[in-house]
Structure formats: C-alpha cells, structure tokens
Amino acid sequence: MNRILEYRGLRLEIPENVYFPSDDTYLLIENLIVKSGDRVLEIGTGSGLVALIAAKTAEKVIATDISPIAVKCAEKNIQMNHLSNKVEVREGNLFDPVVEGEKFDLILFNPPYLPEPEKTTSSRKDWLEIAWDGGKNGRNLIDPFIKKCSNFLKQGGLVQLVQSSFSDIPKTCQNFRKCGLQVEIVAKRSFFFEKIVIINARKK
Length: 204
Ligand SMILES: C[S@@+](CC[C@H](N)C(=O)[O-])C[C@H]1O[C@@H](n2cnc3c(N)ncnc32)[C@H](O)[C@@H]1O
Prior knowledge:
The chain is of the alpha/beta class. It has helices spanning 23-30, 49-55, 68-80, 127-132, 142-149, 169-178; strands at residues 3-7, 10-14, 39-43, 60-65, 87-91, 104-109, 153-164, 181-190, 195-203. It is globular and about 40 Å long. S-adenosylmethionine binds next to helix 2, strand 4 and helix 4.
C-alpha cells in the first residue's frame, strides 16, 4: 500500500519498496543551494521529493534512480504535483542516464551509505535495501560518484552529498579534493551513535 507524504505544499504517494524521505532527505532539502536558471541533476531520487523541491527554483531537474519502482513512483509524484515540465526522470546506475555532453550547475545525491556485509548471490538485495546499503564500508556508491561527478559539473558548479559518520566522512572530503573540488561540510545532525552531514564540493 502507498504511504502519503505532505510537505511544503507537495503531496507524494510512496510505495513500501521506495525509500521514504527521512532525516537525511530533510537535511539535504534544508541546505539546498538552488539558483533560478540552474540545471540540476539528482542521482537516486527515490520518491522524487528532493527533485520536486529543487524544481521550484531551478530551470530544469534531471532525476535518476537505479530502481524502476522508484522511477515510476517519482514520475507519478512529479505529474501529481504538476512539475512534469521541469523534472525529467531517467532510470539507471549513477551517471549512466546522463546524455553525453550534459553538464549541470548542481548535482545532488543522498546515496546508500550504511555499511553492510556483502551479500552472496543466493541472498540478493531488494530495492529497499539497495536504497540504504552502501556495501562493506558504506562507500560502494560514494567513491565511484566522486570520481565521475566533476565530468558532469559546469565550471563553478556544486555537488551536495549526504554522508554518515559510519562511512568515513574525512575520506570523502579527501577524495573530492583529489578530484580538484573545494570541499566544505555545511550541515551536521547528530543521533545516538551516528552523525549525518551535508558536504558541498565545488568545481573551481
Ligand atoms: C537513501 S535513498 C535517497 C532517496 C531520496 N533521494 C531521498 O533523499 O529521500 C538512495 C536512493 O538511491 C538509489 N540508488 C541506489 N543505488 C543507485 C545507483 N547505483 N544509481 C542510482 N541510484 C541508486 C536508491 O534506489 C534510492 O532511491
């Protein structure tokens, strides 16, 4: 059964196997830096909530997800909120759905970042696990994302990445710097054993 989310004038329907917006989603939303005229890429859009909020200011948002169920859910939510003219949803792994030569002012990613022992082939992950499971050290998606993101950023463009203290925040900052991006931690939220942060990384 679909769950209903009402937030800042938007109404979303979210099936049980799509990530339901949580503290990390809201920390990203509260710290979004979207300017009018921006072209925005959101990787791993899930329900589409972040893309919808970004679309209120941006010129165009491309929202992607590897999960076909999330893609369908985001498309429906975008239609229901009358933002289909501004948000396009594409299915695929990380930057694969981006067309050659497409560049963005802003790239957003709330990745699966929780460390989890690797699965054997006999116990394949379901779509909900794929939403939060970051592999052995939590970095299965973070590291390939950092390596490639600069190719899709305009000069002066910005990445906003969500990350947990469980998956080595200093390493993420170091890896962004290795790729020539300027890094700043702009927001933190602490829970019992975990801290989540928003990392801004700008292409100089
Ligand atoms: C933590 S959820 C975030 C969802 C949504 N952006 C939010 O903040 O509520 C991570 C999302 O990334 C998607 N995802 C996982 N692996 C991916 C990959 N390799 N490429 C693109 N998206 C992926 C998941 O399906 C899931 O929707």
